Amino acid sequence: MADRPDTPAGTPQDAQWRTAGDRIQTLLDSCAAGGAAAYERAQELVREVVGLYGAGLERIMALLLEAADPALAERLATDDLVASLLLVHGLHPHAVHRRVAEALDRVRPYLGSHGGDVELIEVTGDTVRLAFAGSCKSCPSSAVTLELAVQDAIRAAAPEITSVELVTVEPSTVIAADSLLARLHSNGHTDSHGQGGASWHPVPGLADLRPGEVAGFEVAGAPVLACRVDGRLYAYRDRCPECDDTLAGAVLRGAVLSCPRCRSRFDVARAGAGLDSAGAHLDPLPLLDRDGAPSVAVPMGVGA
C-alpha cells in the first residue's frame, strides 16, 4: 500500500513507538514489586508526563489555528505517530466518521485482492456498522478479514470505537458484533479459527517477490506461503486443505496455485478458493503495508 501523500514513509523508529505503550505498562507493572506506594508513585509520574505533553500538543494545535496554516495541521493529523498522540489527548482535528472512512480506504487494497470491498454504513456513538461487498460476503475468511485487517485499521484511527457490527444488505438486519468478533479493545478476542488473538509481523522479504513467484516464510513460528500476482501480494497459511501437507514447491500459473503433492488447485486471487473441490479453500492471512514494510497478521495457534 502506498504511503499517504506528504507523509514521511514508515521508519524503524515508527515501529518502535507503536509498541511504546506496551513497554510503559511493563515498566509500571515491574514497579509493583516495590510495593503499592512505589506503584502509585510510578503511575502518578506517568500521568504528569502525559499531561505535560498533552498541554504542549494542545498549545501547538492552537498556534497552528491562529497562524491559519491548515496544510501543516493536515500533515500533523495524517502522520501516524502524531495522530496517535492527538487521539490520546482528544485533540485530533478530524471527526470520528472521517477517520473511520479513511481507515477503511487504507485496507481496501487488501480486500480488493480477495475480490471484495467494505462499505461504511454509519458511525453511531462508539459503534461502527459495516457491510461487505463482493466475494467478502460469502468468503469463509470474512470473519478473520474483519477482525484482523478492518478492526486493526479502525482501532488505530478511532480508539473511541468499541464495537463493530456487520450489516447484511438483504434483508436489512444487523448481526450482533459479539457473534463475529470480540470488542475491539479486548485482548482476549477469538478469531475465526477459534484461537485467541493475532498479531502483525513485518516481513520485508515479501517486497522482493517477483510477479508469478511463490515463496515460503516463517512468521512468528508459523509457516506462511506468499506469492505475487499482477502486482498484488497474497499470503496464506502453508497447508493444503485437501492433503493436509505443506505447499512447499507449489506451482503458480496466473492466479492458480497447484499443490505439488495432491495437485489440488486454488485461486489465490479469490481468497484461496478451491477449484477442484467445493468448500475447500486455503487459509488466507491478512497482509498490509505497515510502517513502510509488508506485514502479515498471524492468528495465535497457527503453526506447523
From TrEMBL:
<feature type="domain" description="Rieske">
    <location>
        <begin position="201"/>
        <end position="296"/>
    </location>
</feature>
<keyword id="KW-0408">Iron</keyword>
<keyword id="KW-0479">Metal-binding</keyword>
<dbReference type="GO" id="GO:0051537">
    <property type="term" value="F:2 iron, 2 sulfur cluster binding"/>
</dbReference>
<dbReference type="Pfam" id="PF00355">
    <property type="entry name" value="Rieske"/>
</dbReference>
<dbReference type="GO" id="GO:0016705">
    <property type="term" value="F:oxidoreductase activity, acting on paired donors, with incorporation or reduction of molecular oxygen"/>
</dbReference>
<dbReference type="InterPro" id="IPR001075">
    <property type="entry name" value="NIF_FeS_clus_asmbl_NifU_C"/>
</dbReference>
<dbReference type="GO" id="GO:0005506">
    <property type="term" value="F:iron ion binding"/>
</dbReference>
<protein>
    <recommendedName>
        <fullName>Rieske domain-containing protein</fullName>
    </recommendedName>
</protein>
<dbReference type="InterPro" id="IPR036922">
    <property type="entry name" value="Rieske_2Fe-2S_sf"/>
</dbReference>
<keyword id="KW-0001">2Fe-2S</keyword>
<dbReference type="GO" id="GO:0016226">
    <property type="term" value="P:iron-sulfur cluster assembly"/>
</dbReference>
<dbReference type="InterPro" id="IPR034904">
    <property type="entry name" value="FSCA_dom_sf"/>
</dbReference>
<comment type="function">
    <text>May be involved in the formation or repair of [Fe-S] clusters present in iron-sulfur proteins.</text>
</comment>
<keyword id="KW-0411">Iron-sulfur</keyword>
<dbReference type="InterPro" id="IPR017941">
    <property type="entry name" value="Rieske_2Fe-2S"/>
</dbReference>
<dbReference type="Pfam" id="PF01106">
    <property type="entry name" value="NifU"/>
</dbReference>
<dbReference type="GO" id="GO:0004497">
    <property type="term" value="F:monooxygenase activity"/>
</dbReference>
